[in-house]
Amino acid sequence: MADPSPARGPVVEADGISKRFGATVALSDARISVAPGESHALVGRNGAGKSTLVSILTGLQNPDTGTLRFNGESAPAPGDTDAWRSKVACVYQRSTIIPALTVAENLFIDRQSTGALRPISWKQLRSRAAELLAEYGVEVDPNARAEDLTVEQRQFVEIARALSFGARFIILDEPTAKLDARGIEKLFDKLRELQQQGVAFLFISHHLQEVYDLCSTVTVYRDARHIVTAPVAELDQQSLVEAMTGESGRGSEPTWSVVDGAQGDGTPLLEVSGLTLDGAYQDFALTARPGEVVGLAGAAASGNVRLGETLAGLHRPTAGTVTVAGRPVRTGRVPAALAAGIGFVPEDRHIQGLIPQRSVAENATLTVTDQLGPFGTVLPSRTRAFAQKMITGLDIKTPGASTPVSALSGGNQQKVVIARALATEPHVLVAIRPTNGVDIKSKEALLGTVRQVADSGRTALIVSDELDDLRVCDRVLAMFHGRVVAEFEHGWSDEQLVAAMEGMAGPNHTKESDVSHH
Ligand SMILES: Nc1ncnc2c1ncn2[C@@H]1O[C@H](COP(=O)(O)OP(=O)(O)OP(=O)(O)O)[C@@H](O)[C@H]1O
Fold it and tell me: Given 3.30.70.1560, 2.30.30.40, 3.40.50.300, 3.30.930.10, which CATH number is that of 12-97+149-245?
């Protein structure tokens, strides 16, 4: 490949990289080259090999074959943490910042090289932290506790820490997954600023628009292989998707069909009234009918996620009632919500979602009740059959139903979480950012599945700030600071919806032809 910066050479250059996990080929003769100051996107479908490449580029795993060079020099020896840190850092969607520590402590924790024998002077630590943050233009108080920072501020601290080790090459693995629109804007501004200073980025995202907004070059992987590297300007979105999927035009619809048994006589399936959780949301009301997909839109602090979690029994509301299919649901208890017929797709699959060591089949059919005590009505053969149907229908890339979930790529793990929520054949499906980390093609299939769930006489509630997620909804309630500020019937514009989520729309900006709360 041509060297775009002959003076210094690429900050990173990987060639002929292969990596297998048992029978799975994660990377096959893959390559990447990133120039100083370049913003380089790496895209591909779930399971294409992106995270595996990241783990090799950061020294966490050794490739089976291939060469890796930083600034023209061979990669550090495996395990030489200090040397690796001076070359490259990765900011993952899950922060490595320790919430209970201050920003200053986080910046200087685990740093063996300086002053190991001297007792730490807190004053000195703080002033060094302040200097470091100022150097990279990060406006964060060094004395603040990390847990009090916004997601993007935490990312800035991680980036500053990486740069302070000398790295001028930073990998961002789905950094926007937990950010709202404003957070993304701030992150991108910071990245552009650092690029001006010569820092190079490898940017991994399933949001192709972000690739076009931020990056100058894009590399596509498909099925463990390098497919193309091109200037972003030369590859339009359609060509990009074609490179990712290996097909032109749209693929086939999912084969998964919804289990029957739901009735649709028009009586509300989900009724929420006066629901309040102090400090999160107030006086929320909703009446949803069978067949409806309702969106609950809102930015980070809007309260929409906590509301969805409350319906799933994760928080005990201060006031209000929830009724499913005419029956009151005991709030604040996950088993009660499940038993009432509320299926749940949580926001963070790592915390609430999966048991990594267990198989795809087990996870896909596991309910929280199973974890709490014997449930025992699901036969293994049914489990397997259901899992197989989901693997096909949701296009889960796995060697088989008995493969442990920990061996799946992030996006494929997310699909298992969705499968699990559907396994209980819920009356009401509550899904929080369901397509988080899912590739563009699977996203369509997945949202199509949510649509099918509703079409079969159930109700789905999609809690998200992703316009793609909300587009499949029949109507959308927009929340801001804990309250519904607008309701949109089909035919809304993205601009109106975004404005409402940002608290900039009064009710008179919305279509309220059939307001069904209250
Ligand atoms: N530790 C592991 N054990 C077994 N298989 C693995 C392991 N890590 C990754 N794989 C497999 O390697 C392949 C590539 O996975 P990888 O996580 O690199 O994909 P990805 O492109 O990052 O996907 P996503 O967009 O879903 O995050 C997948 O088929 C995955 O199942």
Answer: 3.40.50.300
| Helical ranges in 247-379 per DSSP H | 304-311, 334-339, 360-365, 368-372
Of 18, 45, 46, 52, the residue with max ligand 1 atoms within 8 A of its CB, to mutate for a pocket test, comes to: 52
**Atom of ligand 1 minimally distant from the CA of 19:** 12
What's the pLDDT score for residue 151?
Answer: 83
Q: Give the residue whose CA is nearest to atom 5 of ligand 1.
A: 407
User: Where exactly are the structural domains of the chain?
Assistant: 12-97+149-245, 270-355+426-509
Cα separation values, 216 from 203, 229, 276, 469, 515, Å: 11, 11, 46, 27, 45
Span 349-372, pLDDT tens digits: 665 667 777 778 777 776 544 543
Distance CA 263, CA 279 (A): 37
Nearest CA to ligand 1 atom 19: 47
Interval between CA 173 and ligand 1 midpoint (Å): 13
Distance of alpha carbon 345 from alpha carbon 409, whole angstroms: 18
Ligand 1 centre distance from Cα of residue 127 (Å): 42
pLDDT of 7 > 60? The answer is no
Distances in Å between the Cα of 218 and the Cα atoms of 32, 244, 303 are 10, 11, 36
Question: How far is the centre of ligand 1, averaged over its atoms, from the C-alpha of 7 (Å)?
Answer: 35
Query: Is 270-355+426-509 a domain of CATH 3.40.30.10?
Result: no
**pLDDT at res. 40:** 98
Is 190 or 42 the better-scoring residue by pLDDT?
42
Question: Percent of the chain, pLDDT > 90?
Answer: 47
Compute CA distances 263 → 259, 386, 431, whole Å: 12, 22, 21
pLDDT of residue 155 exceeding 80: yes
- Ligand 1 midpoint to CA 168 (Å): 26
Q: Which residues line ligand 1 (CB under 6 A)?
A: 21, 24, 26, 44, 46-52, 397, 407-412, 439
**Residue 414 or 368, more confident:** 414
In the reported structure, the alpha carbon of residue 481 is separated from the centroid of ligand 1 by a whole-number distance in angstroms of 38
The model's pLDDT over 260-286, given as tens digits with 9 standing for 90+, comes to 444 445 689 999 999 999 999 999 999
Nearest residue CA, atom 28 of ligand 1? Answer: 47
Same fold, 12-97+149-245 and 270-355+426-509: yes
